[in-house]
Amino acid sequence: MRKSMLRPIGLALLAAALALPAAAKVTYGVSDPALAARIDGAPVTAFSVDALWRLARVKDGRTARSAVLEEVVLNRLLAGAARARFDEAQLYAGQRVGFAREVALDDQLVASLRGLYGKEMQQALQQLPGGSLDSLIVEQGKPSAAALDAVFGKPEQLKLEFTLNAEQLARARGIVLLRYTLPSGAGTVTLADVYRRQNVQGRVALYNRQADFLQQQARQDLAGRFVLDWSRRQFGEAAVADLRQALAERGEVQALRQQHGIGDDIEHTSALLQRLAGEVTPAQVADYYQRHRNEFTRIERVKARHIRVADEPTAQTVYKALAAGADFAATARRYSTAGDGGASVWIRHEGKPDWLAQLALAQPEGQLSRPIRTPAGPRDEAAWEIIQVEQRVMGYQAPDSEAVRYAASNALARQAAQAQLAALRKQLLRAAQIDINRGLLDQPLPTLDKAQ
User: Fold this and answer.
1) Which residues form the signal peptide (predicted)?
2) Cβ atoms of residues 198 and 84 within 8 Å
3) Which one, of 316, 450, 369, lies nearest residue 19 by Cα?
4) Tens of pLDDT, residues 209-240
5) How distant, in Å, are the alpha carbons of 133, 136, 225, 347, 415 from that of 181?
6) Average of pLDDT values for 290-312?
7) pLDDT tens per residue across span 234-275
């Protein structure tokens, strides 16, 4: 990578880069009401856009359908690039994922469909013989202890991990927990199906032979299948698959943005950010420090005084007296065991301050600290301190300090990464042929209209 990619750019410049026309080939020739757009000939369904728009309006009733359509289009381009540049482990590195990503996506799809069409689904369920989910169940299996042992091993065996190998999974597929009949056909829920859907805690429950949990999870699996079956019959399999793809792409783009330092967690890092930070030069750090010096303020020294007493009751008495306006010096001469009469001293922020100095440096100016027990074991005798900071003097971290180097390098890395992502988006838009269904728009498209 060229060093020029690491030249600092301001946030305003980055925002401008993101908004620049990208010379995409955008047309408005889609007339099929089932389609929202075509991207290089591939369809984006109106069902996906409408579903995501309705879900967005639950959080913000002002959300425009056009904004959602544009997000789906841009996500489809960026998600494809994300998959081409990163494998799953790289793309989602550092993210805490309790469930397998495909399982989490299936659950998100089911939850979205249920949230949008739950009433209609419930009505359809009530019209079936029996009028409930139970009426779909043809047979409910109860695996024997021996069958479970063949999958999970003996209960008394010590487990270092709760993962099934290929042979164990094959046995689990042969254990049927539910046989059911949906309007579209019959099927089964197996132990392997339930196992696949668990996080670590769920797998522990299965290993521990929690029968109620096993059946509850089998019924939950069936409930999800009913939601998908109803939705596919109602809207078509292609439409539901496209919504699932749109949800997956939203997650992939979010992960791609985090790779480039964009997201809610400003502390999040990635291999890309670490590499770019490692390429920042001392000259760039110095330049960043000069332009952002106010980001590197620090407490240089404080003028403080304190009172030390032997026990908490005395400390509370002293604190109440001072809070009521008692003279600090006079109170110190009467109660303090420190021997300095409550005199003011300057404490510099340097080296490794002891705990009392750290407390003074952290105390707001002019405020009286509540009584604080000095560090000691729970059964050891300890003194109690009350501190008052009279004056705080601010300064700046040294430009050649490690703290400055670390903060500046990471800030420059994020700027460079975000510039790369902006350039990638422009490149993808330039190369794409995007055809839009104008009939779905409720306002102009802020990015795509500029790209013509």
Assistant:
1) 1-24
2) no
3) 450
4) 898 999 999 999 999 999 999 999 999 999 99
5) 10, 5, 11, 77, 55
6) 94
7) 999 999 999 999 999 999 999 999 889 887 666 778 889 999
Q: Which residues pair with 368 in a beta bridge?
A: 388
Q: Which of 315, 395, 319, 382 is nearest to 355 (CA)?
A: 382
Closest CA to 326 of 391, 392, 372, 386: 386
**Residue located via tokens 């707001």:** 364
Give Cβ neighbours of residue 412 (< 8 Å, ≥ 6 apart). Answer: 6, 8, 276, 277, 280, 284, 285, 288
Looking up tokens 């703290």 gives 403
CA neighbours closer than 13 Å in the CB half-sphere of residue 26: 22
Q: Which domain holds residue 215?
A: 117-235
DSSP element (H, E) containing 340: none
What pTM value is reported for the model? 0.78
Burial 410-442 (b: 16+ CB within 10 A, else e): bbbbbbbbbbbbbebbbebbeebebbbbeebbe
Listed residues 216, 235, 254: the one ending a domain: 235
Residue 158 pLDDT level (bands cut at 50, 70, 90): low
Residue 185 predicted with pLDDT over 90: yes
